[in-house]
Automatic annotation (TrEMBL), chain B:
Gene: atpB
Protein name: ATP synthase subunit a
Protein family membership: Belongs to the ATPase A chain family.
Assigned keywords, A-Z: ATP synthesis, Cell membrane, CF(0), Hydrogen ion transport, Ion transport, Membrane, Transmembrane, Transmembrane helix, Transport
Top-level taxon of the source organism: Bacteria
Amino acid sequence: MGVMIKTVRAGIFSFAAGVSLLVVAAPCAHAAGMPQLDFKNPLVTGQVIWGAFIFLVFYLVLSRVMLPRVGRVLEDRSARISGDLEVARAAKHDADNAVAELQHARKTAMAEAKANLQKALDDEKRNTEAKIQEIKERLAAEIAEAESKVAAEKQRAFAALTDIAVETTQELVSRVTGVRPAPALVATKVENVVAERVA
Amino acid sequence: MAGGSSIDVLGQFELHSVFGGLGDALHFSQSPVYMMLAVVLVLAFLYFGMRPAAVVPGRFQAAAEVCYEFIRNMAIDTIGPEGASFFPFIFTLFFFILAGNYLGLLPFSYTFTSHIAVTFALAMMVFVLTVVVSLKVQGIRFFAHFMPAGASLALAPLLIPIEILSFLSRPVSLSIRLFANMVAGHVMFEIFASFVIMLAGFGVVGDVFAIGPIAINVALVALELLVGVLQAYVFAILTCIYLREAVAH
């Protein structure tokens, strides 16, 4: 590309130089030479002075007013873009934090609920066990009481049975023999018989 | 511009004083008028382009911003971090030359960059600036550049004059490059345009053949649009390169 442009430029230049030489040499060309090289013409040097002044004004306006204005717009834009990016990044950070907090809270709540449930179940179990134990004890006590009552009743009945047996025996003996045996003797006999039976 | 059958290609570069006697007294020709026009156009482009100062730019503002960023990047990429302080100067230089080159492409207009006095003045301004900056930044070490590092001392009598000569020829090459490109382009315009008028003298056949030079001139406008921006760019980038050498420690 560079070589091509250079070639084109060289071509143009040599062509122009050739044409210029021809024209300068041509008898009918009324210019004695290039007007650009006519340095005796005050206009040629005058444009340099004017050009310097205009260039200076151009430079001052550009460097003091115009270019800073363009630069400010570009800076504002990049500042705004980076600011927006910053805000977005902060928002994402906040959102991430919120999600993490939420997950943490959920985990904690789940663990707490599980613990509560377990505790309730344990309590219930303990209560039930205690009640069952209590009922068992009461029943056992009642059973024991009833048994002791039955035993006492039995004792009493047995004791009464002996008396009845002694009286019956006395009555029988007196009916049969007409003699009323001594109660102590009858009692001893009956007790012996009972003892034999039981044995 | 074509007087009779002769071709006056250089008449277009002649200066005429404008505004009558006042212009005569102040040596004010059409050249400063076009310089002012160029400056006003560039400033108006920037002013109206940047007036919305929108965060999301429109086409006009985007164009102004592209110009700003193009020159700024060129200055900073080429010169280095110090380029930011030279950026307004490079911008002024580039757009002064570009506007001058492009204004000259309008019919009946004048190209102030086709005058060696103007381009040499611009080149000398760059040259003096680089010398001043070099002396300010590097001090006396600036003169060490005229002896390339690593070269044997025996070659010094040969190398130092060559280096000094190449350094001094910078403003010459810088100014002649721009001047010659502009002159060449406008001379060719004039020649082919004159061919059209000459051919018009040959009746219908001439009218038909005149299409050729017109087509060439249309193509030349396209070429000159390229040359105009290219020469402004070359002038600006060479200034950047000279300034980089000046600020290098």
